[in-house]
C-alpha cells in the first residue's frame, strides 16, 4: 500500500499547555481516514500542523517523499474548518483563482469546475457572486475549490457541518468516489454515522492523545460490544443480575442491556430467565457514536491500549 501522508510523534503546546502529544498515523493512497475526537481534542491543531499553518514543536510530517517544511502544500487539497470565500467574486472566478494558486492548467480547471457545479446542483451559477449563494451552496463551492487541482491528498476539516442531509449524502458519495480513484483522504467529523459508512480507518484523539487507531472493522470488533434491546415491562435489577450484563439503561418500557465483550450470544440467549416480558427484542453491536460518547464521557477507559493497526 502506497503511503501518501505519514505523521510521526506530533506534539504541540500553546504557552505552557500541551495540546497534542505523540500523534502518529498514516494515510494511504485511495484510503479514507477519519480523525475523530470531542471538541477541543486537538483535531484541527493536527490538521493545521500538516498544512503548515502552524508549526508543531515535535514530530515529523511526510507527504510522499517530502518532509515537514519542504512539503509542497499547494499540491494538497484542503477544506479548512473556518468557511468563507471572497464575497463579491463570481463562482467561476474564485474556482479559477484557486486553480491558479495551485499551478493547475486553467482550461482544465474550467471544465472541472463546470462538471462539479453540475454534479452539486449548482449548474448555471458560475457567474453568480458568492454573496448571493446560500451557506450550503457556498460550502459546495469551497469543496470544489479544494479538489479543483486533482490533489493526491485531500484534507477535509468538518466537511459535513452546516449541510442538510441531502447535501451530506452528495459530499459523502463524492468523497467515496475520489478515494476510489486513488485520492488519499483525511477528514475530521462529528457525524459518526457518516464516518461509519465512509471511512476505512479512524484515529480517535482525546485530550490531545491517541485513544483508538485502526480499521473500522477492527474498532468495531474490539470496542463495539453487543447490546440487547428489550421492549417490555421489566425490573431493572432483575435485568442487571443476568450473566454477562455490564450495565442496563432503561427508558419507559425499553431496556438496553450492554453486554460484556466475551459474551457468546447463542449461549447467552439460552440462559435468559423465562419470565422476562418481551414485546420486542433485538441484539446488535453498539454504534461508533456510542463508542465515541463512552470515551468522551470517560465510561470507557481505553488508555494506552488503543493501537489496533499502524
Ligand atoms: N491558537 C491557539 N492558541 C491557544 N490555544 C489554542 C489555539 N488553537 C487551539 N487551541 C487550543 O487547543 C485545543 C485543541 O483545539 P483544536 O481546535 O485542535 O480542537 P478540535 O479537536 O479541532 O476541536 P473542535 O471539535 O471543537 O473543532 C483547544 O483546547 C483549544 O483551545
From TrEMBL:
The keyword Nucleotide-binding applies. Residues 5-232 form the ABC transporter domain. Keywords: ATP-binding, Nucleotide-binding, Transport. The keyword Cytoplasm does not apply. One of its GO terms (molecular function) is ATP binding. It holds the Pfam family ABC_tran. Belongs to the ABC transporter superfamily. This is ABC-2 type transport system ATP-binding protein. It comes from Salinibacillus kushneri.
Amino acid at each position: 500500500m502506497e503511503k501518501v501522508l505519514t505523521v510521526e510523534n506530533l506534539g504541540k503546546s500553546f504557552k505552557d499547555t500541551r495540546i497534542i502529544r505523540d500523534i502518529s498515523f498514516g494515510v494511504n493512497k485511495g484510503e479514507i481516514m477519519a480523525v475523530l475526537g470531542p471538541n477541543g481534542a486537538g483535531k484541527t491543531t493536527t490538521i493545521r500542523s500538516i498544512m503548515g499553518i502552524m508549526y508543531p514543536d515535535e514530530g515529523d510530517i511526510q507527504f510522499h517523499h517530502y518532509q515537514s517544511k519542504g512539503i509542497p502544500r499547494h499540491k494538497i487539497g484542503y477544506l479548512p474548518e473556518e468557511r468563507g470565500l471572497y464575497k463579491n467574486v463570481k463562482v467561476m472566478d474564485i474556482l479559477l483563482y484557486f486553480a491558479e494558486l495551485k499551478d493547475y492548467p486553467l482550461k482544465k480547471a474550467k471544465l472541472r469546475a463546470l462538471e462539479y457545479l453540475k454534479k452539486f446542483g449548482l449548474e448555471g451559477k458560475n457567474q453568480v457572486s458568492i454573496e448571493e449563494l446560500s451557506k450550503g451552496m457556498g460550502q459546495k463551492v469551497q469543496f470544489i475549490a479544494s479538489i479543483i487541482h486533482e490533489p493526491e491528498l485531500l484534507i477535509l476539516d468538518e466537511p459535513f457541518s452546516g449541510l442538510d442531509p441531502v447535501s451530506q449524502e452528495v459530499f459523502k458519495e463524492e468523497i467515496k468516489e475520489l478515494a476510489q480513484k486513488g485520492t488519499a483522504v483525511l477528514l475530521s467529523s462529528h457525524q459518526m454515522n457518516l464516518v461509519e459508512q465512509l471511512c476505512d480507518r479512524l484515529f480517535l484523539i482525546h485530550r490531545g492523545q491517541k485513544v483508538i487507531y485502526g480499521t473500522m472493522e477492527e474498532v468495531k470488533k474490539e470496542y463495539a460490544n453487543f447490546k440487547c434491546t428489550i421492549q417490555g415491562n421489566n425490573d431493572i435489577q432483575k435485568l442487571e443480575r443476568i450473566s454477562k450484563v455490564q450495565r442496563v439503561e432503561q427508558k419507559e418500557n425499553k431496556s438496553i442491556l450492554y453486554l460484556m465483550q466475551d459474551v457468546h450470544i447463542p449461549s447467552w440467549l439460552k440462559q435468559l430467565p423465562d419470565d422476562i416480558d418481551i414485546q420486542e427484542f433485538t441484539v446488535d453491536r453498539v454504534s461508533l457514536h456510542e463508542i465515541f460518547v463512552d470515551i468522551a464521557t470517560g465510561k470507557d477507559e481505553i488508555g494506552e491500549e488503543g493501537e489496533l493497526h499502524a
